[in-house]
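Technical annex B. To support the medicinal chemistry partners, we prepared a structural model of the target in complex with C2E, based solely on the information shown next.
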Amino acid sequence: MPKRYFSALKIALIYALIAGLWIVFSDQALEAWVGNAGHLTQMQTYKGGFFVCVTAIVLFVLILRTLKATEVIHQFDPLTGLLNHHMFAAQLERKVAMRKPQQMLVVVYLDVDHFALLNQEMGFAQANNILINFSRVLKSHYSANVLIARFPPDQFAIGFLSDKTAGQIEADVKALKQLFDKSMLEQQVESTCTMGVALGPEDGKQAKAIMEAAATALSQGKLGTRNSFYFFNKSLSELEYQRQMLVKDLRHDLAQERLSLVYQPQYRLSDGAVMGVEVLIRWNHQEQGFIPPDVFIPIAEEQGLSQAITRFVVRRAYQELNEHDLLGQEIKRVSINISAVEFNSRKLLDALLIEIEKIPVFRQYLQIEITETATLNNIEQSAKIIKNLKQQGLKFSVDDFGTGYTSLAMLKDLPIDEVKIDRSFVDELDGETKAKAIIEAIVGMTHGFDISVIAEGIETQQQLDLLRDMGCSEGQGYFLARPMGIADLSKQYGKQRVPS
Ligand code: C2E
Ligand code: CA
Ligand code: CA
């Protein structure tokens, strides 16, 4: 039984005892005191009335105390004694009403960076102490007119009316940041904070709108560089909202495997034989329709979804190609794209390998395409990564080759199987002689290194002829075949000759 039941029972029993004793002894006393029977009845009525009055007063005091206690719980944050979210909003609304025309209502949200990590490292009690100490600093720094709140677990909010200019307000916000930094230094904790700032009436007329604007500014800030402060930006916030919606939908559709794949054949230019396919992902958004990978892949990378995308691509490509019995005879090579983030993360690459290990028969067909710029960070490191992947039986292609300026050096140091000449050079082939010279140079170099070379984005007969004449071994592009679904690929796989 909870403790409060015992307390309530104890009070009720004490009351019953006192009331019982009162009835017995007061009746006896009254009888002894009042001899007249008529008077006795009247006195008993007064006695009953007195009892009712006393119990009513006791009840009143008890209820008042309980109500006060619940009010405190509903108004203040129990850990720090600062205002809670509800009271902050209510009192901010009062400030909105009090605001003089020349004044601004400033709302700052302060979020402790990586608080979860602090919790993990120091334990809850110690991490809570940090918050309590900082709340004390806030209380002693600001006057009583300033609203200070804590929004669990690790956010603080400050709201005040100011006659200052926007520039001066920025100085105040900076001062708050310094207050935080100093408090952390004094507590010998390595912690930073990110802040979002909104100004009323510019960013919102009602308290709720200004608070929402401050929260948006904070979440925008947290996506960027932390340990800083960010003022609310309306147009950014609308874009951000759309982006967040897109991220949400992408996560959902990815989990439900509602994306699909297309395959673009790659041909040997000397005889038109199909050498392989490049797998390209497609997202048909339920409301917005087709969203190009150029739009959602960078978002996916940023949101840590690239691994999920690659896993989906590997699994679905194998499932479809295998189901249509396309692997082995016509299609000897399946190229998939991985993002730069994945390539440069040991953890993500290991996860990719684990996924591939689940389908050992697929490994011999797989070729990983990675853009040239992704491998530029650190050639030595990249060489190690590629070697490791090759030991696992994978092939390697450098995509968008020629755009990175250090291309030729890369050929020497990276153990790659293929380079893919960037579409922009092929595009300029029709008239430009410079593009032709670059392609010739790439073809010449790759021959020396025993690396095969493929040109992408072939759109005309002339481009095809020129590439073939220059000794480029393979080609891919709309002129040869557009990316297609598995059903079309299956229908056309016998079509091995390059249109001439
Ligand atoms: P990319 O790897 O350079 O892929 C080639 C892109 O060129 C594809 O666009 C393809 O449809 C397009 N293309 C093919 N032939 C021609 C042509 O003759 N002319 C022109 N103008 N374009 C041609 P897509 O499918 O829109 O993909 C765009 C980019 O999105 C890809 O560029 C790649 O970087 C990324 N991407 C696509 N699928 C995936 C994926 O599964 N994973 C990852 N990480 N990235 C992907
Ligand atoms: Ca590619
Ligand atoms: Ca490319």
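Notes passed to the chemistry partners:
The radius of gyration is 37 Å.
Residues 399-400, 420, 456 surround calcium ion (ligand 3) (CB under 6 Å).
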